Amino acid sequence: MNRATKIAIFILAVLMSIISAISVYVLKTYFPEYASISSAAYCVSAFFTLYGTVTFITLSQKRGDAKDYSRAFLVLKAIKLFLTLAGVIFYVFFNKEMALPFLVTIVVYYVIYTVFEAIALTKLK
After folding, report:
1. pLDDT tens, residue order, the chain (125 aa)
2. Interatomic CA distance for residues 84 and 106, integer angstroms
3. Total domains present in the chain
4. Domain that holds residue 23
5. What's the CA gap between 36 and 24, in Å, rounded?
6. For residues 55 and 73, is the Cβ–Cβ distance under 8 A?
7. Rounded CA gap, 19 and 3, in Å?
8. How far apart are CA 62 and CA 108, in angstroms?
9. Is the distance from CB of 105 to CB of 40 less than 8 angstroms?
10. What is the pTM of this model?
11. What is the DSSP string of 86-116?
């Protein structure tokens, strides 16, 4: 794993930690009735950090072959989508009253992570 990949993983971990802290603060301060999903925010943050680490390591190993890189990239995107959807369905199934705040939380994380990932993978050529 090269230095740029390690830096991207570190920045991802810091970014997800900051987003997690901000989301928990906002939930506890402005929406105390939804503060119980703050643990879910930490889990979502951990999921995207772990997924990002696997993604950056996998794709950094495939950089030499464009065909393998493209295939791995598409497979990883599909896995991210399906795992996120499975997590949402699982959470909503068992906690219907907190479904909307959780969905908002996961959409914010998903968008921020996807933007970061696109920028980082573009710079990691």
Report:
1. 788 888 989 999 999 999 989 988 888 898 888 888 888 888 888 999 999 999 999 998 888 888 999 999 999 999 999 999 999 999 999 988 888 888 988 999 999 999 999 898 888 76
2. 8
3. 1
4. 3-123
5. 10
6. no
7. 24
8. 29
9. yes
10. 0.85
11. HHHHHHHHH-GGGHHHHHHHHHHHHHHHHHH
